[in-house]
Amino acid sequence: MTDKGFIPLDGSRGYSEAEMRTRAGDFYSQADRRRTVRNFSSRVPPRAVLDDCLRAAGTAPSGANMQPWHFAVVGDATIKRRIRIAAEKEEREFYSGLAPDEWLEALGPLGTTAEKPFLETAPWLIGIFEQSYGVAPDGERVKHYYVRESVGIATGILITALHNAGLATLTHTPSPMGFLNEIMERPANERPFLLLVVGYPTDDATVPDIGRKSLDGFSSFL
Questions:
Q1: 44-71, pLDDT tens digit by residue?
Q2: Which of 27, 90, 44, 86 is CA-nearest to residue 198?
Q3: What φ, ψ does residue 131 adopt, rounded to 5°?
Q4: How many domains does the structure of the chain reveal?
Q5: ∠ CA(61), CA(67), CA(68), 5° rounding?
Q6: C-beta of residue 42 within 8 angstroms of C-beta of residue 119
Q7: Is residue 208 part of a domain?
Q8: Does the global pTM surpass 0.85?
Q9: Within its chain, how far is the Cα of 129 from the centroid?
Q10: Does residue 46 form part of some domain?
Q11: How high is the pLDDT of residue 102?
C-alpha cells in the first residue's frame, strides 16, 4: 500500500556493479562522440524520432514539478527564413562592435561568423522557452521556481537524446532573442532560452579540432 499521491519507483531493483560500470562506460563513449555541427543536410529525419526526444526532455526534474519549459519546433521554410534574417541582424551587431575583443578571440578557433545559413538549411529549429510564470485556466499567475535551472536540465537531456538518436545539433543564442517570441508566437510569460538547430550533418561536415577537459580538470572529490 502506498501513501496518497505517491507511487512505487519504477525500475528500483537497480543493477549489479558490473552492469553499472558497463552502462556508464557505454553512455560516456556515446556522449563523447557528440560534437556541435554547423554543416547541416536538408534531409528531414522521422518525426517520431523528434517526438520521443522531446518526450525525454519533458522528463527533466524541475522546481516544484512546474515543468517551466516550452519547445517550439519550426520546420516551415518561410518561418526559418524569418528567423535567419532576424538572427543574423543581431549577429552582425555582435561581431561588429558589441562583442568584447576577448570573446571574439575565444570564438576564433571555432570559425564562427555572423552568417548562419544552417538556420535555413537544417530541417528543424527548436525555440526553447523558459516560462517565468504559469497561467492557470482562470488567468491567474502561477509562480514557477528555479526556472533557468530546470530549463537548462531539460535542454541538456534533449541534446543528448537527439545525439543518441543519430542527429546533430547546434545551440544558437543570438542576443537579444526577443524576436523569437514574435516569430514563434509565444506569450509574454515565456522568454527565449536558446535556439536549437537539429538535423543530419552533411556527408562532408567538419568540426573544429578541439579537446575537452579531463575529469580532473572539471571535477573534485571531497
A1: 999 999 999 999 999 999 999 999 999 9
A2: 44
A3: -95, 110
A4: 1
A5: 125
A6: no
A7: no
A8: yes
A9: 10
A10: no
A11: 80
Q: Give me the residue label for grid cell 537531456.
A: 157
Task: Spell out the SS3 assignment of the chain.
Answer: CCCCCCCCCCCCCCCCHHHHHHHHHHHHHHHHCCCECCCECCCCCCHHHHHHHHHHHCCCCCECCCCCEEEEEECCHHHHHHHHHHHHHHHHHHHHHHCCHHHHHHHHHHCCCCCCCHHHHCCEEEEEEEECEEECCCCCEEECECHHHHHHHHHHHHHHHHHHCCCEEEEECCCCCCHHHHHCCCCCCEEEEEEEEEECECCCCCCCCCCCCCHHHHCCCC
pLDDT of 3 > 90? The answer is: no
- Cα–Cα dist 5/15, whole Å: 27
Mean of per-residue pLDDT scores for the chain: 92
Its domain, for residue 166, covers 51-201
CATH number of 68's domain: 3.40.109.10
Domain contains 12: no
Amino acid letter, 52: D
Mark residue 193 as left, alpha or beta (left: phi above 0; alpha: psi -120 to 50; beta: remaining).
Answer: alpha
CB 197 within 8 A of CB 118: yes
Residue 141: exposed, middle, or buried by beta-carbon count in 10 A (0-12, 13-18, 19+)?
exposed
Query: Would you say 145 and 133 are in contact if contact means Cβ atoms under 8 Å apart?
Result: no
The one-letter code for the residue type at 149 is: E
Q: Which residue in 79, 110, 80 sits closest to 95, CA to CA?
A: 110
Each residue's pLDDT tens digit, 101-135: 786 777 777 777 788 999 999 999 999 999 999 99
Number of Cβ within 10 Å of residue 164's Cβ equals 14
